[in-house]
Amino acid sequence: MKNKIIYWGITLCLILGFTACGENDNWVVVDDVQPGVYVSGSAVVYKSIAPAASFKAGYPDPDTDEREGVSTIFTWLKASGDLFITKADATGNIINYGKGAEVSSVTSELVAEGPAYKVTEDGLYFLIYNSNLSQLTIVPAKFGVIGAATPQGWNAESPFTSVNYNESTATVEFKGTFPFTKDQMKFRFNGDWGITIPYDASSTIKFHTNMGSIGDSDGAVALASSSTELKGGGKNLSVPLGAAYDVTLKLDLRTNKFSVSAVQGEIIKPTYPEELYMTGNEFGNWFSDPAGVVKMVPVNGASGSFWCVRYFTANQGFKWAPQPSWDGGDFSELASKEGYSIKDGNAVVDADGLYMVYIDMVADKIVIEPAKVYGIGNAFGGWDAATYPFTISGNKMTITTTAAGDLRIYAGSSAATTDWWTREFNIFNGKIEYRGAGGDQAAVPVAAGKKVTLDFNAGTGTIE
């Protein structure tokens, strides 16, 4: 039998000769409902069973192989109406399905001619139809921004302040103003990176709950004032400049495709952490052993700059965070990096050795290089920088004083832009103590011929 289907477009209306379509009409009547599964009822915004109302394959997690028999749709639903799932087969038979037994808080069985589904509030919803088990999953799609560039980092979404359905354009728009830093971000809903539902009697399937760019790599596509196409599980978007952005996330209900545009507002002066920590396989076992976590030393007078000297083993991962825990903001690289590589998302060096790590957040770079530590001052015969180097032996460094005087020691770095004393340290009671952001350290007088030994990993030093 033949049925009526509603199809989008005033232009198509004119092509087909439906001159009765008014200026504000968005839907055109054509013959024959195509085989498929559709959302229907008074809760939906479509006037009848329409191509735009059909479930389509999409947004499965790439780690999931199973795809056959499941399909999805993002759609606007009204709390005042009834929602049904309509199936049309190739012979023209149409059956409405309602809500059956609940499988979980978001998933239920479908029952032919069953009671209507209801939602508690108007809004955008993500629906998953699983023909293998004849089940429907309904999840509110309350999008927010997430990522290192956003107010809550990768910990949680920062929600949009408004969401509206525009009937004249058949679009859903999320809007909000966010203070972004120069970093990366994307869009997410449901407070997690996926929705896992039963796939068949013995396995599950996972679906994306995030939207990213269609670029080839994270950060390759920048947030812009022009419309940028998005896809489920896409790559991170880069934020080109720290500023307040008016962001519009848009869903076209005709195509079920997302896009984003962002208008840059007032530039925000970047802020940098007062502390920075390094952890990894050899440094606190990824924060599980607090005593082994390295507290980076702030460069005196240089906001956002930190350093440390440590012995590293090749190919043992490490990274940094602004606190000694997994509470967001961790990173393994900045815009520029030298002297190391990334493996499985972590920083690694390619050879065992003592290294100087210098992080300059203002310049957006990290430099790791073989450590160079120097003595300076009267105990070594002069005040010329980079003239009296320590000798490296395994994981330790040594130097012998040549005259009586106060012991002064500092770490060198090719990335440093400040005087030597901004990276100064000394030995007190057998321990290495760093000047950091503080004032002059207490004097450490030594005689000529004293051997000074440093063990940075142990945090100890001797003067013999």
UniProtKB/TrEMBL annotation:
GO MF annotation: an example: starch binding
The entry's keywords: Signal
Transcription regulation recorded as keyword: no
Pfam families recorded: SusF_SusE
Signal peptide feature range: 1-22
Residue ranges of every copy of the Outer membrane protein SusF/SusE-like C-terminal domain listed in the record: 275-361, 372-462
GO CC, alphabetical: outer membrane
Highest taxon above the source species: Bacteria
Keyword NAD part of the UniProt annotation: no
InterPro entries per UniProt: SusF/SusE-like_C
Protein name per its UniProtKB record: Outer membrane protein SusF/SusE-like C-terminal domain-containing protein
Natural source organism: Dysgonomonas mossii DSM 22836
